[in-house]
Structure formats: C-alpha cells, structure tokens
Amino acid sequence: MGVQVSKLCTQCFQVEEDSSIPLIETTKSEFTSSTQTLTEESLDSRVEENHPMQSHLFKLIENASIEFLSHIRCQFEEEGFNELFKKDKIRVLTKDCENGYTLKSEYFLKCTAEQFIDLLKDVKNRKMWDENIEKIELVISLPEETSVFYIKYKKFLIISSRDAVVVNRIMRAHKGIAYISTSCEHEDYPESEGTVRAYVETAGFYIEPQENGGCRVVGFSIGDAGGNLPKNMMKTVAASSLPKFIASVEKAIKAEICRKSET
C-alpha cells in the first residue's frame, strides 16, 4: 500500500524532504513492526478497514492533532507558560487551562525516533519497562497509523488509579515524527468504580532526529487527571516522574525489548 501521511502535517508545517526519516505506511513500516507481531495473549492487531467508529475516531484525532502541532511548531517557551521543572537537559513548562492543565516538556533520548515510537506501540511489553502501567490493551487497529488503546495507571501514594481510552495517530511532521493521542469512548471500557477516568484533550510526543544518532523529544498535553487532588500536586508529580520515564525508555531500548517480542 502507498504512503499514508496525514494532511494535517502540511497544514501545520512546511514539510522539508529528508530521506533519513522514513515515511509512514499502513502495513509495512518500521513503526508497525511490534504491533504486527503480537501473540494470542494480546488483541488481534490486524488493521480493521471501515470500522463503524472510524469516521468519529478520525475526526477526534484530527482535531487533537491540529491543537498538538500548533504548540510544537512554535518556540518551546510559549507565552503564559511557567517553568515547573528543570534538571540537566530536561525542562517542563506548565499552564492552567479550562480543561485541567497543560504540560510541555523537552528532553533528549539516546535512541532513534523510530525506536521510541516502536516502544510506545509495543502493547505486549509496555508493562515490562513502564512501571506506571497496570494494564494496557490494543482495542482497535485502524488505517492511517491510527489505533485505540485502553490504559490503566497504577495507584501512586495518595493518587488513585487512573484510566483512559485514547485514540492515537502517528504522523510525519516537520523534521520528525509525531505520536498524538486524545480521549475517546468505547462500550467495552466504561468507567469503573475505584478508578478515576482521566480526560486527554490532546497529548503526545514530537520526536526529532539529532546528528548524534539520538533524538529530541517535545512532550505536550492538555487534560484533566480527574479526582479531587489539587492541580499543582498532579502537575508536580507528573513533572518529577519524567527523569525516571526517560531512564526506563533508554533501558528498554538498550535491552531490545521490542525485538524480543518478535521471537
């Protein structure tokens, strides 16, 4: 099948040709290597053409992508944002908003953009390296590098367990790759007692290759974690956990967790 690159990329960026960045394909791509090899322990990852929810889900992720990319194409330090966390080469900015709060981060990984994307998509092994995850399932696999995940996060100290159903899309953007998510609903995953349903207006990663073989990551999210805890507490916990997340990503890639899932 031919190249599947969302039109949103050209709406938000003046795309530059760069042969070092693979284009996205629906069935054969470095980005799909992990999810195409899931075992019977996971949900079937075959792409569902013309799924009854496809039009609705595509509209959700397209709107979220426009919002996400508008914050990535500008300078990292945006007007109205305050610095929340800074350590080594990690920076986190924040801003309160009507739907909860906004977080914007910048950091560098010792891996390629493709390796990071592959790790994020590897549902089967996500819990092996991400200690925050209690449960993650691939719900639907759609065309145009779009999927629906159910994610449940572990309880942490006084913070109750959170969960979310999100639709994700991978697209080429500017000089890198964007992995974007937004909340959606699915009848098989209703809200449950004892778990707080989080709302994600838009969230994701913009990953740009660097000359040293690593990549620069800009994370951005607008959402509401739900519950009654103060926003400042939730923001601080999210920002302070970033160094551990980065270390876990690099450790998992070095251990070739994604490749092991193929054997």
From TrEMBL:
<dbReference type="InterPro" id="IPR051213">
    <property type="entry name" value="START_lipid_transfer"/>
</dbReference>
<dbReference type="InterPro" id="IPR023393">
    <property type="entry name" value="START-like_dom_sf"/>
</dbReference>
<feature type="domain" description="START">
    <location>
        <begin position="112"/>
        <end position="258"/>
    </location>
</feature>
<dbReference type="Pfam" id="PF01852">
    <property type="entry name" value="START"/>
</dbReference>
<dbReference type="GO" id="GO:0005737">
    <property type="term" value="C:cytoplasm"/>
</dbReference>
<dbReference type="InterPro" id="IPR002913">
    <property type="entry name" value="START_lipid-bd_dom"/>
</dbReference>
<dbReference type="GO" id="GO:0008289">
    <property type="term" value="F:lipid binding"/>
</dbReference>
<protein>
    <recommendedName>
        <fullName>START domain-containing protein</fullName>
    </recommendedName>
</protein>
